[in-house]
Design a protein that fits this description.
Elements: H1 5-13, H2 16-29, H3 34-58, H4 62-69, H5 75-109, H6 118-131, H7 135-160, H8 164-169, H9 180-190, H10 193-205, H11 213-246, H12 256-267, H13 269-302, H14 311-328, H15 334-360, H16 363-366, H17 373-398
Helix pairs in contact: 1-7, 1-10, 1-11, 1-13, 2-9, 2-11, 2-15, 3-9, 3-10, 3-11, 3-15, 3-17, 4-13, 5-6, 5-12, 5-13, 5-14, 5-15, 6-13, 6-14, 7-11, 7-13, 9-15, 9-17, 10-13, 12-13, 13-14, 15-17
């Protein structure tokens, strides 16, 4: 089989935010939060499979389906506002962190080059790729970068050689003191709302009534399972490497920005460059997919075409990219912004997931491809935990 849309989702969620959050989780709590990662990967596979199935069966992305099937005069504009705010504007906010992350990676690799050169160059490359309007070109570029990330971070994990018994112990659920916000951030950096729009949009764009839907759904589920699991392994590698290198030491502030440099004493110069290349690849993949996801969400909710060649679609994607590039060029500390965005992402997640689960359980929307009882039973604890974590974060922010 040929992997495709699922790897684009992996490309989207393995960004500087994931590297930052996983690094902090490993440095501050060792392997104790690996269970959170396992939950997040399983939940992401379930949710992304639903989004993909929606695109395959209906030929609509999640935003288009919401616009079509929410008819209440109050709820429809509210849904439009929420989706455009959370996904469209949110993608623009994440874009600054994505471009900053890719830039930080290149600065580590080429310290002799002026730092202000990289962000505009990365933004221009991303813009050209998006403006091409060609699914195949974008998909091929992102798949290459995901495979590069996989090689880099898994190789770094092998160099770090974490104790297997300690890694396995991390899959036993526990919440160490002070880790609740990090747990929420790990969930939010893996189960990403805009990926639901991205995944459904890519498959909706390839919709063909002549293709056997049942066979395509099976293929898509396998693609999603393998791709998201690979993303989980990459995150596990980052968290475990940070745990081996920094847990229990007085290393100071650990972040994606300085992780490459701080690994050098333990793993040698090769690990320094390996991690920097991985950070660059992670930032670039997310810098391309965030505008794409935002464009699917905004265009779908406004009733515009979701064709990548459409001028409005291109305009929305480029505006998101330009906004991110402008913020990234201001020289703000990207780490605090990324962590804040990931936590906000976790708060917004219940709204999007509830919409999705509602849609894929409607017979008049999905026909014979609604959720099975088993899938609904599996997704219920996922939704409950998502709501619980989000409620905790809201209460902690208020009080």
């Amino acid at each position: 089989m040929r992997l495709g849309p699922g790897l684009l989702v992996t490309a989207a969620f393995i960004g500087p935010g994931t590297i930052t959050t996983a690094s902090i989780a490993g440095a501050n709590f060792g392997f104790a939060l690996l269970w959170t990662l396992l939950f997040s990967v399983i939940a992401t596979i379930l949710l992304q499979s639903m989004a993909a199935r929606l695109g395959v069966v209906t030929g609509q992305d999640l935003a288009q389906a919401l616009r079509t099937h929410i008819q209440h005069p109050l709820f429809k504009p509210l849904a439009t506002f929420l989706v455009i705010s959370a996904i469209g504007v949110g993608s623009a906010a994440y874009e600054a962190g994505n471009l900053s992350g890719a830039t930080l990676g290149l600065i580590e690799i080429f310290p002799q080059v002026h730092t202000q050169v990289w962000t505009p160059l990365i933004a221009i490359f991303s813009a050209l790729l998006l403006y091409s309007g060609k699914h195949k070109v974008v998909e091929t570029a992102l798949i290459f970068l995901v495979l590069l990330m996989s090689l880099v971070f898994i190789s770094t994990l092998v160099m770090a050689a974490p104790p297997v018994t300690q890694v396995l112990a991390g899959f036993i659920p526990s919440i160490p003191e002070g880790s609740a916000t990090t747990v929420l951030a790990l969930v939010g950096t893996t189960i990403v709302p805009y990926n639901l729009f991205l995944h459904s949009g890519i498959l909706a764009a390839k919709h063909d009534k002549k293709i056997d839907q049942r066979k395509l759904i099976k293929h898509t589920n396998l693609d999603t399972g393998i791709s998201i699991t690979l993303g989980g392994v990459i995150t596990l590698a980052i968290l475990s490497t940070a745990s081996v290198a920094f847990y229990g030491t007085e290393v100071g502030k650990v972040s994606a920005a300085n992780m490459a440099m701080q690994l050098e004493p333990l793993l040698g110069n090769a690990a320094h460059y390996f991690f920097a290349i991985g950070l660059f690849a992670a930032g670039l993949t997310s810098a391309i997919t965030a505008p794409l996801a935002g464009a699917y969400a905004v265009c779908g909710m406004l009733g515009w075409s979701n064709d990548m060649n459409n001028s409005r679609f291109k305009l929305v994607a480029i505006v998101i990219l330009v906004f991110g590039a402008a913020v990234a060029s201001l020289g703000l500390d990207p780490v605090a912004v990324i962590i804040f965005a990931q936590a906000a992402n976790g708060i917004l997640l219940p709204i999007v997931t509830t919409y999705l689960v509602w849609l894929v359980n409607q017979k008049y929307v999905m026909g014979d491809y609604t959720n099975s009882m088993l899938v609904n039973l599996l997704i219920l604890p996922v939704l409950l935990l998502i709501f619980g974590l989000s409620s905790y974060k809201l209460i902690s922010l208020i009080f």
